[in-house]
Amino acid sequence: MSTRARIGYQDPISNLIHSIYLHQDGDPKWAGKTLLEHYNTLERIKELVALGSISQLEMYLSPSEAPGLLPRYEKQRPYPNDWRKHSFSFPASNVTIAYKRDRHDSGDIGIMVTHLWEDAMEHNYLFKDGMWMHKPQVGIWKSFVIGRQPKK
């Protein structure tokens, strides 16, 4: 079973919210911590959202960012001598898995642009005014910082 989440940012000029769907590990202990530690500038978050919907959030956006890249599933890789290759079926370790880029899904890549936040996911993360906010599906928005998990 997956812990789904929505990750987004509020544009400081237009106030529009740009967000994407995250399929698994959307809980604060994984996704929240990863966002705080590796996606803490508006520019970086825009790069993440530009990928469209993602299956798994990791510290790197692409294999070219990852130093000393290793395979996730060494025995199953069809190209064992090239760890820089990354796909949905054979993802590189610590690299975010995106549906369009890595599985070659066509059509809508799942970027939602709205004036209001949709609360359909178990966890919702919004980067606004230079800080991360978190809201569980049932609850209120609270600031989110390392070392202090949002209260339920």
Describe it:
- By secondary structure, the protein is an alpha+beta fold.
- It has a domain at 5-61 and 96-143.
- The chain contains 3 helices and 8 strands; from the N terminus they run ββααββαββββ.
- It has helices spanning 28-38, 42-50, 99-103; strands at 5-10, 17-22, 54-56, 97-98, 112-114, 123-128, 131-136, 142-143.
- The chain has a 6-stranded mixed beta sheet, covered by helices on one side. Strands 3-4 form a two-stranded antiparallel sheet.
- Strand 6 and strand 7 (131-136) form a beta hairpin.
- The model is unreliable at 148-152 (pLDDT under 50).
Quaternary structure type: single chain
Largest sheet: 6 strands, mixed
Number of strand segments: 8
Beta-strand fraction estimate: 15-25%
pLDDT average, as an integer? 81
* Poorly predicted sequence stretches spanning 5 or more consecutive residues: 148-152
Structural Rg: 16 Å
Query: Helix share of residues?
Result: 10-25%
Number of helices: 3
Shape: globular
- Write the H/E string, N to C: EEHHEEHEEEE
* Sequence of strands across the biggest β-sheet: 5-2-1-6-7-8
Report how far apart the termini are.
Answer: 21 Å
Which structural category do the helix and sheet elements fall into? alpha+beta
